[in-house]
Amino acid sequence: MSAQKVLNLSDLEQDTAVRVEVDGVPMAVVLDGEGVVHAIGDTCTHGDISLSDGFVEGDTLECWAHGSAFSLRTGRPLNLPAYEPVPVYEVTIDGDDVLIDPTVTKAVD
């Protein structure tokens, strides 16, 4: 599978998450304060809650329900109650197009 357009870069607001679904895979897409676009799995690993309804601060996305914050760069939870990471997807920007391949996750050390 190849990367698919999920939205326009101009549609993203800084420090706000947007939920998209690519081939049945829910993702939260975020334009952070440094202008970097991130895509992580949209489902909190603690409570099956949509992360895109949460709060963006710096390079984290916090689940609104129980407060677990996930790194937008690694997908790792930074505090409890979540302890399992969410997937992080490669994002490609082509002009105004934001492209994501739901089968390609970033390697996290």
Please explain how this structure is put together:
With 109 residues, the chain is an all-beta fold. The chain has one domain (4-105): Rieske [2Fe-2S] iron-sulphur domain (Rieske Iron-sulfur Protein, 3-layer Sandwich), CATH 2.102.10.10. 0% of the residues lie in helices and 44% in strands. The protein has no helices and 9 strands. It has strands spanning 4-8, 17-22, 25-31, 37-41, 55-57, 60-62, 69-71, 88-94, 97-105. The strands form 2 sheets. The chain has a 6-stranded antiparallel sheet with strand order 1-9-8-4-3-2, with no helix packed on it. β3 (25-31) and β4 (37-41) form a beta hairpin. It is globular and about 40 Å long. The two termini are 25 Å apart. InterPro entries: Rieske_2Fe-2S, Rieske_2Fe-2S_sf. This is Dioxygenase. Residues 4-100 form the Rieske domain.
CATH class: Mainly Beta
Total of domains = 1
Architecture in CATH? 3-layer Sandwich
Share of helix, binned:
under 10%
Shape: globular
Radius of gyration, taken over Cα atoms and rounded to an integer in Å: 13 Å
Classification by helices and strands: mainly beta
CATH fold node name = Rieske Iron-sulfur Protein
Strand content is 35-45%
Number of strands: 9
The largest β sheet comes out as:
6 strands, antiparallel
Low-confidence segments: none
Average per-residue pLDDT, rounded, comes to: 94
User: Helical element count?
Assistant: 0
Fourth-level CATH superfamily: Rieske [2Fe-2S] iron-sulphur domain
Please trace the helix and strand order, writing H or E for each element.
EEEEEEEEE
Task: Determine the N-to-C terminus distance.
Answer: 25 Å
Strand numbers in spatial order across the main sheet: 1-9-8-4-3-2
